[in-house]
Amino acid sequence: MFRFFFIFIFFSVVLLHPITSYGSHISDPTVRLLQSRISNNFSKKFCNSIQNGLSKDEAMTSAIIKTENIVSFSYNPQKKWIEKEDLANQISIKVINDCGWSFGLMGKEGIDYFKSYFLEIYDKTTPDKKLSS
Q: Rounded to an integer, what distance in angstroms lies between the CA atom of residue 119 and that of residue 76?
């Protein structure tokens, strides 16, 4: 009888006072979709520039500026939730998969190199802006 009473009290407390948890904006599908669109746009611009004969530095700077302009004028309120590191990682994966072979980058090492390269050039190109907000 005591055991039944204890179980009843325990479940009553758990059901009446559930643990509060907060959702993460990072796992929001709309944020991931926007991040995917930005990385696809960047990759397309970067790879086209490489194929048209621009150097990696010129292609990177051009793609960053063009992508930044598109994001800046976007009215999507989800852009403020995009993390620069996550976006840089997704951009790196997309670029290496799309055209990394054309300038000698492949695999995990290529992705890591391109990510650090992207962040370095991005910080130099747009010191006062955030790609994601």
A: 23
